[in-house]
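**Fold tokens**
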Amino acid sequence: FKNAEAIGHPGGLFLNMISSMGYSCESQTTPYVPYFLSALDYFAWRYNMPEMFYPEALTPGMREVSKSGDMWGNLFPRGGYVSQVHDYKASAVVAQRIADIVSRDGQLHVYLPATAKQRDGYWPPKEVKEGDEKTHKWQMLSPRTQNTCAIFPDGFTTDAYGDKLSNQESYSWALWRPYACCKRRGQTFLGSVDWMSY
């Protein structure tokens, strides 16, 4: 069983400052704001209610954190119980569950959605989808800070991930999401063409 939290990244203070000057896109999150605390989401997090009856929870192979035969765990039900015995992988599955919850509106959990609406000149990221690097990437912060980002699973099927294990069974990641925006120059935005893939 794992408890988990999703807190607005402290670096967002700097990002908000440069976004107000037009150098960055506005973030969907506010620094230090708790978007999800598993202790407050008691019934859904501890008892998997009502998600244990969702089709995603009942259908094998649907909504899994896996890649090329390396299956880390099911995304549903989005609660604290994980059937993965490897602590790093179990924690990554829980982080993916939290990201799945907070990146959507109207979920049956106690949480604050980290979502925004599209408007002229601003295209916030879509919902986090496991295995899709166009919607998100993870950067490990503890027990080891990494300078790279990846999606889960973030290695090969044969990896033991011993270098990423925590003695305290405590992990933290930064969730990075792709934003698109443009500075308003005229009266009406006509459109854009994205030549770069994320």
In short: The chain has a mean pLDDT of 90.
